[in-house]
Amino acid sequence: QEQLVESGGGLVLPGGSLRLSCAASGFIFGTYTMSWYRQTPGKEREWVGTITTTGGSTIYPDSVKGRFTISRDTDKNTGYLQMNSLKPEDTAIYYCTARSPITGSEYLRGQGTQVTVSS
What we know:
This protein is an all-beta fold. It is 0% helix and 50% strand. β5 and β6 form a beta hairpin.
């Protein structure tokens, strides 16, 4: 069964850090670009960043640039989202996706993991 499973979410103080993982199974994750998104109730989902198939290039929106880092380990078939200097407005459900590097269409999406930034 092909799936993406996120983990690593939780409650963290403002200014703290978390590392989310996105474990792929049933397919070779490294043949797809990986993107992270986040969503809060009542809002549209927000793109958090993307990494290429080889991991050689990443891109982020201004809202997280300099604080969040995406990486991937092709041997482990897993991707990561390192989040530093977290703010209350980073609170959301975070999920990863696998996208075709050719068409950009979404191939698979994980179920998400909750991140709460609060004192």
